[in-house]
Amino acid sequence: MKRTTLAFFAFLFCLTPVFAQDWAKTTLAKSTRHQEWVAVKYGNRTVNAFIVYPEVKTKAASVIVIHEIFGLSDWVESVADKLAANGYIAIAPDLLSGMGPNGKGSLDFTGQELNRAVSGLPADQVTADLNAVADYVKNLPAANGKLAVTGFCWGGSQSFRFATNRKDLSAAFVFYGTPPDASAIPAINVPVYGFYAGNDARVDATIPASTDAMKAAGKKYDPITYDGAGHGFMRAGEDPANSVPANVTAHDQSWARMLAILKGI
Hints:
Radius of gyration: 17 Å
Order of helices and strands: HHEEEHEHHEHEEHHEHH
Distance between the termini: 42 Å
Low-confidence stretches: 1-19
Largest sheet: 8 strands, mixed
Shape: globular
Structural class: alpha/beta
Strand content: 15-25%
């Protein structure tokens, strides 16, 4: 199957489209927390990442936030800010850094070009980018060395896959993402927590196999499905244009669950 066809299907699978996110931009603008862009360099590559620091007295755990197939957006940045509001150093890398027109990133793509670019990212490059970002954030003076990863849609799949490549994670949060190849499951060294939409048959169909593979490998996998919610409910649940009450419920319950787990790492 041609890559363009794969990209088209990947776009369809992320059912909730992204239009202007002025509401997320407003949330970011109102934040009192320290937000900045950092350039994480390794080898010949530079990954631009949005990082937000919590207003706390002690060193904090860190969370990597992996964007959707729509690239690093205002909403994803607002997720990082919300994690910081709850006491965590949150860093959201633009995995399209240097891949856009004129060597830029997510903001320089338009429409389906953006979806195609994200879905076409080389797996090894994604892993290397995430490892570089993980090393960077873990070694910050304000960090306590504990690290978790979360991701949404395409990023949810990457969060699950990153757990097969990174041994020092404390938790992996998979929001409506598909699992890695079953052969990679035994390499996971961290609890994986799944967050799924009831109205998302494509992704939900992977849950039984993931459950079996994780159980066979002796790994912790804890999936929860939210009835009535659609794919993309974390973003849709905050969007003022959302018309599905179950998305709001799933969003709120998922945040509460994730924060409760983070407190225990």
